[in-house]
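USER: For my understanding, would you kindly supply a protein sequence with its structure tokens?

ASSISTANT:
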Amino acid sequence: MQNNPFQNAMTQLDKAAKIGNFNPEFIQLLREPNREIRISIPVKMDNGSIKAFEGYRVEYNNALGPYKGGIRYHHDTDINEVKALAFWMALKCAVAGIPMGGGKGGITVDPKELSKGELERLSRGWVSRLSDILGPHKDVPAPDVNTTPEIMSWMADEFEKITGDKTRATFTGKPLENGGSEGRGPATGLGGFCVFEALQKKLNLPDKCIVAIQGFGNVGSNAARIFTENGHKVIAVSDANGAILNENGLDIAALEIYKKENETLKGFTGSKEITNLELLALPCDVLVPAAFENQITESNAKDVKAKVILELANGPTTPEADEILYKMNVAIIPDILANSGGVTVSCFEWEQNLKGEHWSEEQVNQKLRPLLDDASTKIFDISRKVNTDLRLGAFILALERIQEKMYK
């Protein structure tokens, strides 16, 4: 990777350490995960051959509770990306105020190149290699990029076979009929919208905003739908193949159907094709990166014309870009706050599984919003108090909560 995400994460940590009141020993401890594991997963392919895939699990910090974090299937996934994501997850859980620590997993693979049977054997292989470190009170994985409720179901089943644990609480993001939670699908997008609403007036945004969204997977498409349903205008979205723009606003409901049928955004009625880079530079009120890390960098930050960036992806803005945007008065609502709705509802799923309960979507959302409202207000107040940006405000809140637990 051109930008090492873990180096970016440590740069962010160093910045926060300089302005917060932290024990230097604590900051030093947070520079490395508690444990990082690389595994080789042999998979019998459909043609009878055996192929080995590289897998990972990083358990970063569990001061606040069991390690928690998604499993990413991507051909670019490597240990530095997984370490960064595990670190951010530890902070994200602390920001959201949930009893979870930070972890992350992954496999270096393009899942589109595997048959369904190969994908299932790979997923079960990841669990069998790591079953001794996983568990409802030890480490609770979840979906991430390219991992679905079905994959989580295979994993939960494999873990139950190996350990006999029947709570189903070790894996979250499962299908509803298999112990999943109502509201988990839209949780990251909805959580981002809750945070946006909590900060909208504080950041001097208009009542109805013009929005551009990079990414149209689960998170981006849900965010687009929720913004549109609440009267905002989404003018551009993108996927891996490029972006589309309609300055009068896209019909998101129709676009979701079109994408499902055609597996592309290109050619959607009334839209024109633009590049992902052009999308990031569109004049708008809110720019929502909802794809991958390192999208807004030193080389393109100066082109951003949005008033506010709402980070629904993990690590989409590099530390160098942060500094440029801060000088340009572009407010960044950071990932560890903006996309914490997903892990919060994952935590609710874990809680429901342990208690043998099933909450309605209304109950889930009623529990979600107050947590995010509280975190948003606290972070805004910290950033103003110490005269810094929202990211460092979020880091200070998270680090204070983790340090208090580690040194009490």
User: Anything to note?
Assistant: The chain is about 45% helix and 15% strand. The first strand starts at residue 35 and ends at 44. The chain has two domains: 22-170, 187-338. The first helix runs from residue 5 to 19.
